[in-house]
Amino acid sequence: MNAQQIRDKYLAFFKARSHQVIPRALLVPQNDPSTLFTGSGMQPLITYLLGEDHPEGTRLVNSQTCLRAQDIEEVGDNRHTTFFEMLGNWSLGDYFKKDQLEWFWQFLTKEIGLDPDRIYVSCFIGDPKHDIPSDQESADIWKQLFKTSGIDAKEVNIGSEADGYRLGTLNGRIFFYSDKNWWCRAGKAELMPEGEPGGPDSEMFYLFPEVIHDPKYGKNCHLNCDCGRYIELGNSVFMEYQKTKTGFIKLPRKNVDYGGGLERIAAAAINSPDVFKVSLLWPIIQKLEALSGNSYDTHTNSMRIIADHLRGAVFLAVDGIAPSNKEQGYVMRRLIRRAIRFALDLGITNNLCNQLIPVIVSLYDKDYPEVKSRSQSVLDVLNKEELLFRKTLSSGVKELAKFKAISGQDVFKLYDTFGFPAELTIEEASLNKIKVSSDWRKQFDHLMEEQRERSRTATKGEFKGGLADHSLTTTKYHTATHLMYRALRIVLGDHVIQRGSNITEDRLRFDFSHDQKMTAEQIKQVEDIVNQQIDLDLPVSWSEENTKEALDSGVMGAFGDKYADMVKVYTVGDPKGEYFSREICGGPHVERTGLLGENHKKFKITKEESSSSGVRRIKAVLV
Is residue 439 located within the same domain as residue 476? Predict the structure, then answer.
């Protein structure tokens, strides 16, 4: 069974169990300042997991395209990719642990046919400090499921991941971990802010016995070891607690949030520990072998990186991102350029995108029609970046010729300034008989780590998930964004379409399609229109509506968004009479626009600038 068939079977499996299939969200989150990309299936649903009613009901399922830029440096091993699909199913106050774990087991062992004897699971060990008990309920359910396959599942208390490397598996089948099996947006229970939800989770792993444990990761192998012997297939989160001033209380509505990697499940289905052997990646590898005359076995790392990075870049382009030096565009540029660098290792010196993108498009055009319909624009965007970078590489070679000796700092400078690969610098230096410092690698790695640390520091304090928070101030800015969106269309024209937003309690940021800088007069017109709606103190309400009927009636949405059959529509004004705007949105919003003007505040645009080609960006405040 290939990956495409597994995706279809998963959706059908849960649809038969009364789940509504919802479309994938864009790779660029809407109304989410916490992260540059959609990195999980639950991320677009966070407002519903926090209590909003979903227009499609309490049982949902989909396959969500995801991108995790933090995994770029990990790509090259047998299981990490920056781009992947996450199969997800959710219960919003409906079923809970028993149904979820039994269905997960049934899907993988019966529908996909995985060997139960190679399945291992983890559960939450408990948190006495916060009076949260061990998740023995999940362990008991797993024990019975293993028993149906004739497996006597031994329970083992591990604790931390560090304890895992010390203890090993101890012939266990069900393993209790601490932080690794507690889910919350802050990462750890003690870091959760007041009002935040969280809960224990249970992960399933698949054993690949042919993978030999590498002791460089730790003395003993365990479920969460990085050696690749055990690969996580999915995680069922049981969101049942809420943080308070004094500790934790049970949520009135318990949720299930499951996410599982499609590529990893597909790898298990073909009995391969290498996710690059699955049907969504292997054809790209085969094309690289044909183009280069090299084999995957001898150039594994390079081919994995190229296949992963170009696949991610294609979907970013499909979702409207263009390479740039800012945020999502910067990551996209890095993916493309890394792919081109590693293509040099294979001897591919030109036309990489022209030759690989049609292969990638063919893998997704049936299941994601937007990939096919936008394939030419995708090719144009990536080809342009490839040509630009090949000129950059030429500049790097010229710069390298100026050196009489090369240190690690020089290697880093060429990498950081010209995007010149470290290994290519050393190779060129050798060919040109330029002396290379013996400790160049150590110095280069140190500078790279410093750069990564600067990047990590720069993102500290960013809130994890949804809007920055659901405070009144942030909610006001969310409503102000709707007012501004409509005002922009009035002033600039109906070609203005939302291309992204980022809302915190300090300001709103809004990206929209427009190919010219706004004039001072246009900016003032938008401000005046928004402030007029605030002064009118219009009601803000929502209703569930048929998607096609809503869009046909002029309801606004965001660029590229795909919607389910029913959507939430927020109306500013009278939905049955005079209204200012109607927009598809999950909320939350204030009840009346007049709340935005409390304490004599006015809407003010503080900055208008280019975001990427054909896209402008506005920052605004209430002051």
Answer: no
Residue 31 has pLDDT above 70, yes or no: no
Residue 24 has pLDDT above 80, yes or no: yes
- One domain for residues 538 and 480: yes
Question: Does any domain span residue 337?
Answer: no
The overall average pLDDT reported for the chain is 89
The C-alpha atoms of residue 38 and residue 25 are separated, in whole angstroms, by 8
The predicted structure's pLDDT at residue 456: 52
CA distances from 394 to 159, 218, 384, 387, 397 (A): 52, 43, 16, 11, 5
Q: Write out the two tokens for 557.
A: 């949405």
DSSP at 362: H
Q: How far is CA 203 from CA 139, 196, 212, in A?
A: 11, 22, 22
pLDDT at residue 566 in the model: 84
Do the beta carbons of residue 135 and residue 121 sit within 8 Å? no
Provide the 3-class DSSP secondary structure of residue 292. helix
User: Which residues is 513 bridged to in the sheet?
Assistant: 615
Q: Reply yes or no: is the peptide bond before residue 133 cis, omega within 30 of 0.
A: no
Are residues 562 and 430 part of one domain? no
Same domain, yes or no, for 483 and 599? yes
Look at residue 141 and tell me whether its pLDDT is greater than 90: yes
> How far, in Å, are 166, 171, 172 from residue 219 at the CA level?
6, 16, 17
Instruction: Inform me whether the pLDDT recorded for 251 exceeds 50.
Output: yes
- One domain, residues 182 and 250: yes
Rounded CA-CA distance 389/407 in Å is 24
Q: What is the pTM of this model?
A: 0.76
Domain termination residue (choose one: 383, 418, 453): 453
Task: Tell me, yes or no, whether 326 lies in a domain.
Answer: no
Residue 460, pLDDT score: 44
- 311 inside domain: no
DSSP 8-state class, residue 464: -
Is 471 or 158 the better-scoring residue by pLDDT? 158
How many domains would you assign to the chain? 3
CB-CB contact of 318 with 309 (8 Å): no
Domain range for 269 is: 3-274
3-state SS, residue 571: strand
Query: Is the four-CA dihedral 69, 75, 77, 78 of positive or negative sign?
Result: positive
The pLDDT tens digits for 579-617 are 999 998 877 899 999 999 998 899 999 999 988 778 899
pLDDT at 53: 87
Same domain, residue pair 540 and 589: yes
Question: Looking at residues 297-316, what average pLDDT do you find?
Answer: 94
Among residues 296, 275, 384, 292, which one has the least CA distance to residue 343?
A: 292
pLDDT of residue 352: 94
**Angle made by CA atoms 185, 186, 190, in degrees to the nearest 5:** 130
Of 13-22, 29-38, 444-453, the range with the lowest mean pLDDT is 29-38
Q: Which residues contact 268 (CB under 8 A, 6 or more apart)?
A: 108, 112, 114, 206, 231, 233
Q: Edge-to-edge, what's the strand order for the sheet holding 615-622?
A: 498-503, 508-513, 615-622, 603-612
Task: Tell me whether residue 321 is in a domain.
Answer: no
**Residues 180, 183, 186, 191, Cα dihedral to 10°:** -70
Mean pLDDT of 503-521: 91
Q: Do 476 and 446 have their domain in common?
A: no
